[in-house]
UniProtKB/TrEMBL annotation:
Organism expressing this protein natively: Bifidobacterium coryneforme
A Pfam entry, by short name: DUF3107
Protein name: ATP-binding protein
Amino acid sequence: MDIEFGIRNVARTVSFSTDEKADEVAAHISQALKEGGPIDLVDDKGRHIVVPKDALGYAVIGSDTTHPVGFGALGGATD
């Protein structure tokens, strides 16, 4: 699952992937915002991403990360 956080007053986003499902991530963010604590998620490499609730501008919870196989149509010359 790809996640992107927009941080207030910072031009660059925080992007990472996690093994959690979209619903789990959304619930975790909502709970942290309600309780007033930081958002603490673990990425797919085991690192903690901690964002103070007041610093969060937005969160984009993307679709599951897939690993495509093959090169697809590259276009090009015909014989």
